[in-house]
Amino acid sequence: MRNPNLRLNDLVVRGKKGREESKLMNVKVPANVLARIYRVAANLGSTKTEVVIAILNEGLETAEEELKGWKPPPKPVVPKERRCTIKGCDRERVAKGLCATHYQAQRRARAA
Ligand SMILES: [Zn+2]
Question: Average pLDDT for residues 21-45, to the nearest whole number?
Answer without folding.
Answer: 93
